């Protein structure tokens, strides 16, 4: 672990002066084989802080490769959060793919140059980068190229299925539970769900099950805006009408979206691609309602907070546009990643200092709980303020503590749970202080 985190208000200028030289020769569109070579080249250049692994295969058998950055690649370290970037979910929306390849090269180069901001990020975070979730769709789009690519050509996978309409629909269950005071997190998947989704979707869900991701962004194209949950409206579909569909964490999601928008070269200005979004952000359902999307699924099934980043008016911009896009997104990619280090984090132990996995962490006034990982560590993104936090686990007495969160690094708050009396498991919580140790047209799908 490195020194405590501080807000990098002046680091945009630093990043602008360092890193790879930005010229047209640095940028190109990467077909599958080119992308794989680029990822393995990064791993070769930075072998001690990177790892490449595959989370599965596409319909046509292409690997879904992930490049990991960490000071201990291949291993989760307690109290070190897991972060992911996902690109190219829609095969013809290619800017995210190219940005994530370039971002991987940038992280490697800056680490080798001892840029302390990047060194801290890699030492204190486990970063996972999936440049292409839909490599089959990309190959279809790439055959037409930037000049002739249609709005839908290559959007879906090899079976022409839109992967951002392919996740199990947990929103309907969540909205029902809101009315019946049911479960508010880690909702159950439907029976036989594995046989109802595409191979790429299945691979990503299994990935989520295997890693305790805390923060994520999904990179798209076709607009310029930071989109946050919920994507699916609570109201029935009414033609020509949209409604804001807030999560219990609406304030933090708005802050996360603004972090990217204001660090981006022009997203925050609002007017882009003929549309206007105040501050360059939007609630998904307020834009248009979308069912079975990935960002809502992250929030309802895992501990992960995900937003969708629409990054370019052109879904398949020419290679000549890539240098400008990189300069516009570079600081935003770093600043957003740093948000994983805010809020609270800690360990949940029993009275013998053994970690308790899957303990539930609840925050009074926010109807969305998170759970501890298999090592007993938990992470809860929060805005600055004072909170009442409770840890609970089956067979233990719940414990409640008060904590004040600041604007900088996450506050560590550990819990030590005592076994519940066998004759009465329903005991009131103990209390104590913190341990100081645009509407969608019928035939023209929206960008997301």
TrEMBL record:
<keyword id="KW-0378">Hydrolase</keyword>
<keyword id="KW-0121">Carboxypeptidase</keyword>
<dbReference type="InterPro" id="IPR057246">
    <property type="entry name" value="CARBOXYPEPT_ZN_1"/>
</dbReference>
<dbReference type="GO" id="GO:0004181">
    <property type="term" value="F:metallocarboxypeptidase activity"/>
</dbReference>
<dbReference type="InterPro" id="IPR000834">
    <property type="entry name" value="Peptidase_M14"/>
</dbReference>
<comment type="subunit">
    <text>Tetramer of two catalytic chains and two glycosylated inactive chains.</text>
</comment>
<feature type="compositionally biased region" description="Basic residues">
    <location>
        <begin position="425"/>
        <end position="434"/>
    </location>
</feature>
<dbReference type="Pfam" id="PF13620">
    <property type="entry name" value="CarboxypepD_reg"/>
</dbReference>
<feature type="region of interest" description="Disordered">
    <location>
        <begin position="425"/>
        <end position="448"/>
    </location>
</feature>
<keyword id="KW-0645">Protease</keyword>
<feature type="domain" description="Peptidase M14">
    <location>
        <begin position="28"/>
        <end position="340"/>
    </location>
</feature>
<dbReference type="Pfam" id="PF00246">
    <property type="entry name" value="Peptidase_M14"/>
</dbReference>
<keyword id="KW-1015">Disulfide bond</keyword>
<dbReference type="InterPro" id="IPR057247">
    <property type="entry name" value="CARBOXYPEPT_ZN_2"/>
</dbReference>
<feature type="active site" description="Proton donor/acceptor">
    <location>
        <position position="310"/>
    </location>
</feature>
<keyword id="KW-0732">Signal</keyword>
<keyword id="KW-0479">Metal-binding</keyword>
<dbReference type="GO" id="GO:0006518">
    <property type="term" value="P:peptide metabolic process"/>
</dbReference>
<dbReference type="GO" id="GO:0008270">
    <property type="term" value="F:zinc ion binding"/>
</dbReference>
<dbReference type="InterPro" id="IPR050753">
    <property type="entry name" value="Peptidase_M14_domain"/>
</dbReference>
<protein>
    <recommendedName>
        <fullName>Carboxypeptidase N catalytic chain</fullName>
        <ecNumber>3.4.17.3</ecNumber>
    </recommendedName>
</protein>
<keyword id="KW-0482">Metalloprotease</keyword>
<dbReference type="InterPro" id="IPR008969">
    <property type="entry name" value="CarboxyPept-like_regulatory"/>
</dbReference>
<comment type="function">
    <text>Protects the body from potent vasoactive and inflammatory peptides containing C-terminal Arg or Lys (such as kinins or anaphylatoxins) which are released into the circulation.</text>
</comment>
<dbReference type="GO" id="GO:0016485">
    <property type="term" value="P:protein processing"/>
</dbReference>
<keyword id="KW-0862">Zinc</keyword>
<keyword id="KW-0964">Secreted</keyword>
<comment type="similarity">
    <text>Belongs to the peptidase M14 family.</text>
</comment>
<dbReference type="GO" id="GO:0005615">
    <property type="term" value="C:extracellular space"/>
</dbReference>
<feature type="signal peptide">
    <location>
        <begin position="1"/>
        <end position="24"/>
    </location>
</feature>
<keyword id="KW-0325">Glycoprotein</keyword>
